[in-house]
Write a structure and sequence with these properties.
Strand content: under 5%
Length: about 130
C-alpha cells in the first residue's frame, strides 16, 4: 500500500466515523451484518471498491474544473472572424466553358408548348373518317 492509498482509505474511514451517529435502517443494518459474517473478506473488497470510486470521482472533478476553465476562457475571448470562402483564381487563358447538360431539358431552355391530352384523338360523337 502506498502512502497515497493509505491517506485515501483513512479519509474514507474518517467520513464513516462521522456517520456513526446518523440514524440507520435496522433491517438494512442486520442484513449487512449477516452478509459480513458469511463473507468476512467482503469488507476488504468493499473498501477497495470505494477507493477506486473515490479516485475516479477525484479525477472526474479535476477534468470538470479544467473544462469549466476552458469554457470560461472561450467565453471571454472576442469572437473569431468568420472564415472567408476560398476563391480559386485561374489565369485568363485557362477559363473553362461550362458544359450544358445533355437532353432537351436544360435550365432556362424554353419548353415546347404542352399539347392537350386529346390532341390527335377523334372527337366524341364524330367518326375518324
Amino acid at each position: 500500500m502506498t502512502p497515497q492509498e493509505r491517506d485515501v482509505i483513512a479519509g474514507i474511514f474518517d467520513r464513516l466515523r462521522q456517520a456513526a451517529n446518523q440514524p440507520r435502517d435496522p433491517e438494512a443494518e442486520r442484513f449487512i451484518a449477516d452478509r459480513l459474517r458469511e463473507q468476512p473478506y467482503a469488507v476488504y473488497a468493499m473498501a477497495q471498491s470505494v477507493y477506486v470510486q473515490e479516485q475516479a470521482l477525484t479525477s472526474m472533478q479535476g477534468q470538470i474544473e479544467q473544462l469549466q476553465a476552458e469554457v470560461e476562457q472561450l467565453r471571454n475571448q472576442p469572437p473569431a472572424p468568420a472564415p472567408r470562402p476560398a476563391i480559386r483564381r485561374l489565369p485568363v487563358g485557362h477559363i473553362r466553358r461550362r458544359r450544358e447538360p445533355a437532353g432537351p431539358f436544360r435550365f432556362g431552355a424554353v419548353l415546347p408548348a404542352a399539347r392537350p391530352a386529346t390532341a390527335g384523338l377523334p372527337a366524341l360523337g364524330r367518326s375518324a373518317g
